[in-house]
Design goal:
Strand 6, helix 9 and strand 7 form a beta-alpha-beta unit. This protein has 13 helices and eight strands. The chain is 51% helix and 16% strand. Helix 3 crosses helix 6. The radius of gyration is 21 Å and the shape is globular. The protein has an eight-stranded mixed sheet with strand order 3-4-2-5-1-6-7-8, sandwiched between helices. The N and C termini lie close together (5 Å).
Length: 302
């Protein structure tokens, strides 16, 4: 069975700049292509997934990108409004309460209020059902914040439980935490580059997510992998300028091989995504990456 065949919530994270948004878009597109109604979520950031897939921005409201594929940019203000309306039920009450400056002042003292409502919105959609009783979304892919912020973001339910008294907020934090720590439902996808610092941070991130969040690492993606192509004999037969190019390539290939060796020490399948060379990195590149990641998603994979 493949690594991600049945998990409904995939949390993609890694050091900033390793390509986690690319991997999120590719996993979401691949899931949709397999008939799964898929929602991909960006968290309080400038939208990039819609641009990568050649679609207009959707903003804070869920918008369709492709067959079986939707997107949303989860923002704190809109998420707080949705969360409050779920509790208060009536918009007039919401406006009376949350439109009050004094209430706004005290809200700032609730620990991690922005993170809990954004995470709550995402996990609400994970539990949301259609009138026929089927899941509204079969899978949700989160393009999560980078390493340090990701740990804070995903630790919020437990922080709330350790801080606030029993009540609606604590009740919601409980089911959020339970969804995150359930390996049958949720898995993290850790993204790295074949460089020393990203690899070190990926190893540390796995340890932190396992210890602090109790989150299962479902897969590791080594992005920008460069395979070996030239032997010493090959380089010896090249003109000097081309021999230098080949030598630099092999040095980078060695870094990729070493990064793979270290990342394979993690207790999760590893997928290598070759470096994509295209004039413009857009839909075609995402299609290429999605095809590379197919073994992680195919139910028939070993």
């Amino acid at each position: 069975m493949s690594a991600l065949a049945h998990q409904r919530l995939l949390i993609v994270t890694g050091k900033g700049g390793v390509g986690k948004t690319t991997i999120s878009a590719a996993l979401a597109l691949g899931s949709a292509r397999r008939g799964l109604r898929t929602l991909v979520c960006e968290v309080n950031t400038k939208e990039r997934i819609t641009t990568l897939l050649g679609r207009p921005e959707v903003g804070a409201e869920i918008g369709s990108l492709d067959e079986n594929l939707w997107s949303v940019d989860v923002r704190p203000q809109e998420a707080l409004r949705e969360y409050a309306l779920m509790i208060l039920k009536y918009e007039s009450i919401y406006n009376a309460v949350f439109g009050n400056r004094l209430v706004g002042y005290f809200l700032r003292f609730i620990p991690s209020i922005q993170e809990i409502v954004m995470l709550g919105k995402i996990l609400f959609h994970l539990r949301e059902k259609r009138p026929d009783g089927q899941w509204r979304f079969d899978r949700i892919v989160i393009d999560a914040p980078a390493t340090g912020h990701a740990i804070t973001f995903l630790s919020v339910p437990q922080v709330v439980l350790d801080t606030v008294p029993p009540g609606p907020l604590a009740t919601d934090a409980t089911w959020m935490r339970d969804l995150l720590v359930d390996p049958k439902t949720t898995g993290s996808v850790l993204v790295s580059l074949p460089e020393e610092l990203p690899v070190n941070e990926t190893l540390e991130l796995h340890a932190a997510l396992s210890a602090k969040v109790k989150l299962t690492t479902a897969a590791v993606v080594l992005n920008g992998f460069i395979p070996e192509r030239f032997t010493a004999a090959d380089r010896a037969g090249l003109p000097p300028e081309l021999a230098e190019v080949a030598r630099v390539h092999e040095l980078r290939a060695q870094l990729s091989t070493e990064a793979e060796r270290r990342l394979r020490t993690l207790p999760a399948p590893l997928a290598r995504v070759p470096r994509v060379y295209q004039p413009q990195f857009g839909r075609a590149a995402i299609e290429t990456v999605a095809a590379t990641l197919a073994p992680l998603l195919d139910r028939s994979a070993p």
